[in-house]
Design a protein that fits this description.
- The chain is built from 14 helices and 19 strands.
- The protein is an alpha/beta fold.
- The protein has three domains: about 120 residues, Methylthiotransferase, N-terminal domain (Rossmann fold), CATH 3.40.50.12160; about 240 residues, tm_1862 like domain (pyruvate-formate lyase- activating enzyme, Alpha-Beta Horseshoe), CATH 3.80.30; about 60 residues, OB fold (Dihydrolipoamide Acetyltransferase, E2P), CATH 2.40.50.140.
- The strands form five sheets. Strands 2-1-3-4-5-6 form a six-stranded parallel beta sheet, sandwiched between helices.
- Strand 15 and strand 16 form a beta hairpin.
- The radius of gyration is 22 Å and the shape is globular.
- Bound molecules: 5'-deoxyadenosine and iron/sulfur cluster.
- The site of 5'-deoxyadenosine (5AD) has 12 residues, from strand 13.
């Protein structure tokens, strides 16, 4: 019996798919490379932008044909898209060949859902249900990195964002459970731990003993052995001095912060309900750089939010040039039903959004290029992460600050720390040579 998982969206979903894989393997399924060989197909979905949804519906449609070839095939749709209002119903009505629909916190129901599907019964559950991480054997796919959830959901309600509606309110995982998982992962030989939360900085506010994110960083940072600790995502309004100090105090904690700014215009930030100004953001970046001079700051930026004027957009370009992000994920605003921004006036025409995203990408590209050029000739510690599939015997890995570097070596180096001299740079891509194994 084989399984195939389609994963869409962010790291949170990638890690959820590792949990799904663990459940399926416990039930006797083996991973396969092609949907044609699968006895169970899982669509772990995303709905952050309309483009993601359109792609997923296209892929789900293909199940009809696959089921004709293999009538015993079981199909599952889970994750953020299925949690949206009305979607489970829509899938039942328009995609009758889907057997199981589960929401974002119902993975503990997957096993009984599969039993039902084998008995030709449909299984739909999109009630928030919350499970314990400890209930699953995770089948990890990202060695030498291991993802670790620290909190779930979001209370911020940025006006464009669907996440609080599909992932629910913030829930923090008990600190002892997180520490036990991290210790086990390090004992198992993982070399990088990435803590996951929609907003890691609000970790602990709902816990009885008032633990916080800085405390968690300090506890993990003090664990013995050589490994890297990363975390995402940080909301700028909640990143405290204690967190910056914790990063500075521990060698194991990478000087790399993903700090989504979304816009450089105060008027837009206000309408997005981000609860900081561009001036607050500049101050925060100064505070971070004072303590962590080598830090790599990455970000998410959106263009075409309702009412965004040419001047608002120019404020974003100006912020990008001033902050000098090491990289930025740039998005075109997508209207999400159920969010406040959906019904805001002055929605921006697609042609304007497209023109702005092109200009934004060019602007960030110039910044990345100049940071890359400055890196040429210097040597950085890299954790070898995996093969660059475009070339034979080329591996890639990241600097502590998060920049991806390609270099020649064989896959025996995966999971090792090496020292790499940067030889050349083409915009975002860096090429180097190993000068020492660490
Ligand atoms: N349209 C476009 N981008 C969005 N994001 C969140 N919601 C939307 C939306 N409706 C982006 C934000 C966020 C990232 C994960 O996705 O930039 O930080
Ligand atoms: Fe969405 Fe804002 Fe929460 Fe991030 S902080 S998940 S953008 S609502």
């Amino acid at each position: 019996m084989n399984y195939f998982i389609h994963t869409y969206g962010c790291q949170m979903n990638i890690h959820d798919s590792e949990k799904i894989a663990g459940i399926l393997e416990k039930l006797g399924y083996t991973v396969c490379d092609s949907v044609n060989d699968a006895d169970i197909i899982v669509f772990n979905t995303c709905c952050i932008r309309e483009t993601a949804e359109q792609k997923i519906y296209g892929h789900i449609g293909a199940v009809k044909k696959l089921k004709r070839k293999n009538p015993r095939l079981i199909s599952v749709v889970c994750g953020c898209m299925s949690q949206q209002d009305g979607v489970a119903q829509h899938i039942r009505e328009s995609y009758p060949y889907i057997d199981i629909v589960l929401g974002t916190s119902d993975l503990n129901l997957l096993e009984s859902a599969i039993v039902a599907a084998k008995n030709k019964k449909k299984f739909v559950n999109v009630e928030f249900n919350t499970y314990r991480e400890e209930d699953f054997d995770v089948s990890r796919t990202s060695y030498p990195n291991a993802w670790v959830n620290i909190n779930y959901g979001c209370n911020n309600f940025c006006t464009y964002c669907i996440v609080p509606y599909v992932r629910g309110r913030e829930r923090s995982r008990p600190i002892d459970d997180i520490m036990a998982e991290v210790r086990q992962l390090l004992a198992d030989g993982y070399k990088e731990i990435t803590l996951l939360g929609q907003n890691v900085n609000s970790y602990g506010h709902d816990l009885p003993n008032g633990e916080n994110f800085a405390q968690l960083l300090n506890l993990i940072g003090e664990l013995p052995g050589k490994f890297r600790l990363r975390f995402m995502t940080s909301h700028p309004k909640d990143l405290s001095q204690e967190v910056i100090d914790a990063i500075a105090a521990h060698r194991n904690i990478c000087d790399n912060i993903h700090l989504p700014v979304q816009s450089g215009s105060n008027a837009i930030l206000r309408r997005m309900n981000r609860r900081y100004t561009r001036e607050n953001y500049f101050d925060l970046v100064d505070k971070i750089r004072q303590k962590l001079p080598e830090v790599g700051i990455t970000t998410d930026i959106m263009v075409g939010f309702p009412g965004e004027t040419e001047q608002d957009f120019c404020d974003t370009l100006d912020l990008v040039k001033r902050v000098r992000f090491s990289s930025a994920f740039c998005f075109v605003y997508s209207r999400r039903k159920g969010t406040p921004a959906y019904s805001m006036p002055d929605q921006i025409p697609y042609s304007v959004k497209k023109e702005r995203i092109t200009r934004l990408l060019a602007c960030q590209n110039d910044v990345t290029k100049s940071i890359s050029a400055q890196m040429v000739g210097s040597t950085y510690e890299i954790l070898v992460e995996g093969a660059n599939f475009k070339y034979d015997n080329v591996m890639c890995g990241r600097t502590e600050s998060g920049r991806l570097v390609n270099f020649k070596c064989d896959d025996g180096f995966i999971g090792k720390f090496v020292s790499v001299r940067i030889d050349r740079a083409s915009s975002a891509t860096l090429w180097g040579t190993i000068v020492e194994e660490l």
